[in-house]
Amino acid sequence: EFTTTRTLNDPLLYSYNGISQFSSSANYGVSQFFADMGAGGYVAGNRYAWYHTSPFLASTLALRYYISRAGSDAGDTTLHELARQGSAALYRYDHALPAAFMVRGDSERGSSANPFRNQNQLFCAMTGLSGSLFEEQRMPIRAEANGGTVIGTAGNYHYRAEEEQITLDFVLDCPKDGLYYFYPRIYGADQLTVTYADPQSVNFPVKYTQASILPAGYHQAGDTVRIRCTVNSDGAEHFAYLQYALMDSALFEAGYARLSEGALYEDNYTDTSLSGKINASDDGILYTSIPYEAGWSAYVDGEKVQTEAYHGAFVSVALSAGEHTVEFRYLPGGLVPGAVLTLIGILAGALSILCHRKRRAKKG
Question: What is the DSSP secondary-structure string of 70-86?
Answer without folding.
Answer: TS--TT-TTEEEEEEET
